[in-house]
Amino acid sequence: MKLKWKPKKLTLVIIPDANQSVVRFRVPHLFAYIAAACFSLLLLITLITYALHAQTTKKANALQAKLSGASQQWNATLTSKDKAIEQLQNEVIQLSQQAEQMKSQVEEMKKFENDLKSISGLDANETGKAVASATGSSKNKSTEEQTPPAATSGIGGSPNPASQEAIMQLGEQTSASFTALNSEVKELQTSLTETKQKVADKQHQLAITPTLYPTNVKIVTSTFGYRTDPFTHSPSFHSGIDFGARENDAVYATADGKVVSTGKDIYHGNNIVIEHSKGLRTWYMHLNKILVNNGDNVTKGSTIGLVGSTGRSTGPHLHYEVLKNGESIDPKPYLKANRKDD
Ligand SMILES: [Zn+2]
After folding, report:
1. Coil, strand or helix: which one is 315?
2. For residues 157-188, b (16+ Cβ closer than 10 Å) or e, as one string?
3. What digits encode the pLDDT tens for the residues 160-172?
4. In angstroms, what is the span from residue 223 Cα to ligand 1's centroid?
């Protein structure tokens, strides 16, 4: 017996309006399965496509949001950086102004040192040269240009923004200025220390040099040198200066020193010898009274005795001598100053 495969068929009925005839389709079963499969596949593809699209859109939105956030953050960072740069640039300008101010101050200090040397009678030329060399870098600028305006004074002008390059250059110049200033200040410190020592030495030298008048009265009744002797009327040598002071006028030590002799004899009367430095002494004669003792340290201008007419004297006066290495010299070149509290 022979089996015959007879494919099953489906009948599709389309029913239009009531007054029209019914349309029938007879299709094999397989067609229906294929159609259902195609429909399912199409549906699946549509669903997958929709799902992928939704996912992509979501990702894109998230990415866009992230980008937007990053962009905002970046803009904020840029703004903050711009502000920081602007602040730094302003600081560079301020520093450069400070460097100029410091330069002026260093010059002032050098000038001050120079003046100090001049006042103290030290050689100021040396410092003058130092000032000239130090000002070399900025000698073309006037002091007015170097000094920035005071905070309270008005400032103005047309806006002229500085370029970044100009600020960079200013920064480099300022750095160089500070380096130079640092070494100048170090030199100045050394120089000032030396000057301080020199001034101290000079002060000491001045203190031990008999530059004071020994009495308030500066009338000279007999100078140093040859004269006619007031007692013998013969030519003789007068080894000091006579001051026409009155009886009991104060007699001053003409420099710091040590009393090395006090005494009385028929020629010098009451007299005092003070040693000031090696080889330099002063001698005060014909005193009415001696107010110091042998070995006393005396300061310049201190009262050591009273004017009198003791010894070989015609009347009240002070015979004053300056001795160098035991030899009487003219006191006149030494007499430069009044007593300090005059
Ligand atoms: Zn005399």
Report:
1. coil
2. eeeeeeeeeebeebbeebeebeebbeebeeeb
3. 888 888 888 888 9
4. 8
